Amino acid sequence: MATMRVVQVSRPNAAFQIVERPIPEAGAGTVRIKVLACGICHSDSITKEGLFPGIQYPRVPGHEVAGLIDAVGPGVAGWQPGQRVGVGWNGGYCGYCEHCRRGEFFACVRGQTTGVTYDGGYAEYMIAPPSGVALMPADLAPVEAAPLMCAGITTFNALRNSGARPGDVVAVLGLGGLGHLGVQYAAKMGFHTVGIARGKDKEPLARKLGASVYIDSQAQDPAVELLKLGGAKVILATVTSGEAMSAVQGGVAVNGTLLIIGAPESMQVSPLSLLMGCRSVKGWYSGTSIDSQDTLAFSVRTGVRSMNETYPLERVSEAYDRMMSGKARFRVVLTIGS
Ligand SMILES: [Zn+2]
Ligand SMILES: [Zn+2]
Predict the structure, then answer these.
(1) What angle do CA 141, 323, 318 make, to 5 degrees?
(2) Ligand that lies nearest to the alpha carbon of residue 116, given by its number in the listed order
(3) Calpha distance 325→309 (Å, rounded)
(4) pTM of the model
(5) What is the signed CA dihedral for 113, 114, 115, 117, rounded to 10 degrees?
(6) What is the pLDDT of residue 338?
(7) Tell me: the pLDDT tens digits for 133-190?
(8) How many angstroms separate the alpha carbon of residue 93 from the centre of ligand 2?
(9) What residues pack around ion ligand 1 (CB closer than 5 A)?
(10) Which ligand is nearest to the Cα of residue 99, counting in written order?
(11) Which ligand is nearest to the CA of 152?
């Protein structure tokens, strides 16, 4: 029987194990994907540390998957072996629950989460339902595509649904794994793009990524600086500090939005600022497979790419620790297969 290597977590907080398993068959209503690259995302700690209610072990993490369909199960329409595809955090939806019937597929009550409710992309092969699969453009390398399946779609899809229009001031708070993509997408979408981060040393990077204004939040008050520009129609908050989020709130324009995609435990909000300026604070779920497909297509057309550090599958523990250290510039990607 043909086997494959996978990286599994056998129980919460256990070390990664590289094990051989039989290559799974594509069952009814699923496709089998030969994985070529898989990004390592901070959310993989949910699987590693057992933070997801009801998660079952052993489990293979990984929801920034890029690869090729290599087998199609019975009853699957519209997908064929040989297609280049990606799989992201949203691992598929049922299509018939009330949310799905309203087109809110991300909120499906039977929704799957890749690498959490089923085995993900830290593996040579994986199985996925077609509703979780996005087409990957021919001229996008798997290593380039992988991080766009989570960090990319999250920033791209939040920005394109933010209500900001070309020419509006859009600020991106944080210049890490999410933020360095957010600045690029904001600039390519035609926004007057502002990068906000700590320290003067990040300014050249922000400008290289497309920011026309840089605010050093250590030396300047970001809210005051944004108001000098008329306020930000949207501030995309990518950081994991509630304090940093609270500190920019005063820079949101009238009718503007503080759009949250980073996940600190709490933050302070000024109700007076919200009601006096019809401002809002809103969260954004990354998106589903068609949003990922749009993200990949937009990225390849406009040249948006993440900056990546790559590791072979065998060095997964080192790669994961590097990601968790927060020192990676900026995404960590496993290369898999030949
Ligand atoms: Zn992720
Ligand atoms: Zn559903």
Answers:
(1) 90
(2) 1
(3) 13
(4) 0.97
(5) 40
(6) 55
(7) 999 999 999 999 999 999 999 999 999 999 999 999 999 999 999 999 999 999 999 9
(8) 5
(9) 41, 43, 150
(10) 2
(11) 1
